[in-house]
């Protein structure tokens, strides 16, 4: 693949990756959020695939397939299953309203750009130039985790953080060892399974998954 | 780039003529498309021109107690739009007034028209005029930064805020059109333009219900030739905004050199692009309902973030 095509494809995938994170903040319907999250998994797999194509690395190619299967297939499917029958499927009253959280995302982007400046100057290349994108997604993930009330959107926030970390890892290093990536992916999968179980139990017990209402202790 | 070349002067003149003559036709075409998609016969493409002719023949009437602000607003609105139509890169990038076609100057000129009309709405002292002006300012406060930032994202790689320079450099480097910067900026600009020109889902241009009006509420008190000017200016603003959108992202067909012969294909290309965009917008509107007013800032904040991301991307993906 030629160099300009590589840079353009990488930039396009990173743009889609970042856009998906912002859309998670923008939309209220949980079903749409899950779909956007699946799209982000697709963009992440595309980033890894583009790097694999540029480095001609079969190992990275295999990792891209794995990421595609896990983050665009399995995790969204699990989330959708948790969503089915989960009461009103909307993020009705986030702690920070949508307009303000979008502006917050703009500020987070600037912070990520400022913070990652030294990282980029260490080894300037098209891939490291996109590192702020990964960091922004990590920060937006934290933001979603902190400001959303529904259990499912918090899970999506957690997964955004993980997506951002994975993207940063692939963009900064020449490639993550297969074993490490497998371990991390397995961890994430287990975390989501546990969280899904927890959300289901919360719903069965209290009839809702609004975590802000769980403030008092009962025996 | 600048200088009084014959092609440049002719191009600038043709731009103004095309925008003035074509804008009502564009509006007519958009209404016709909408009517057909809704199963109505429609009034025909020439109806806005017929309306304008009817209005200009009427006696000018102004509400008692209104001041110069009310009288000057339609003229100011038309004048600012005409200046933008003359200097912007619509048919040719070598307009003799090219230096005025700065991103900030153009957005400021267009905002001046918006503010003049809002002041006129306040000047009438009626409830609806004030309400419309207040709403329009709420929207404008969010739209103007988006317009500035979205076009600024395109200007970063060019190193110039001149619109003609941006268009020329996109012509020389077509690969830029599919970069994330362009795509994000295009979406942001599209949302900002639909809000600024008062189209769905921000404002319903065909509404007859005063409580939901934004643009229409401000011009309720206008009648006769004044109303004709306001209507013509709104149509021209729509054409100018769509023309800017088309030429910033798909500039092919625009005349760049000093040759007069390139102007004819440029006219065809410009008319085609703007009509296509307008028809697409009208067709899209059939499937949209007006947003609740309190949801509009959300949409506009979203488009502002997209524009900001475009600027950020133009720095960190460079």
Keywords:
heterodimer, A: 219 residues, mainly alpha, globular, B: 318 residues, 11 helices
Structural overview:
Chain A is an all-alpha fold and 219 residues long. Chain A is built from 9 helices and no strands. In chain A, 43% of the residues are buried. With 318 residues, chain B is mostly helical. Helix content of chain B is 68%, strand content 0%. Chain B has helices spanning 6-37, 47-56, 68-87, 103-123, 127-158, 163-172, 180-196, 215-218, 224-249, 263-286, 296-316. In chain B, helix 1 (6-37) crosses helix 9 and helix 2 (47-56) runs antiparallel to helix 9 (224-249). Chain B is globular and about 55 Å long. Chain B starts with 5 loop residues before the first helix and ends with a helix. The model of chain B has no long low-confidence stretch (mean pLDDT 85). Chain A binds chain B through residues 4, 8, 11-12, 14-16, 18-19, 22, 26, 97-100, 102-103, 105-106, 109-110, 113, 116, 120, 129-130, 132-133, and chain B through 175, 178-181, 183-184, 297-298, 301-302, 304-306, 308-309, 312-313, 315-318.
The N- to C-terminal Cα distance of chain A equals 63 Å
What is the percentage of strand-forming residues of chain A? under 5%
* Amount of helix of chain A: over 70%
What's the gyration radius of chain B in Å? 19 Å
Which spans of chain A of ≥5 residues are poorly predicted at pLDDT below 50?
Answer: none
Structural class designation of chain A: mainly alpha
> In total, how many beta strands of chain A?
0
Rounded to the nearest angstrom, the distance between the terminal CA atoms of chain B is: 26 Å
Radius of gyration of chain A: 18 Å
Gross geometry of chain B = globular
Strand % of chain B is under 5%
In terms of quaternary structure, the protein is: heterodimer
Number of helices of chain A: 9
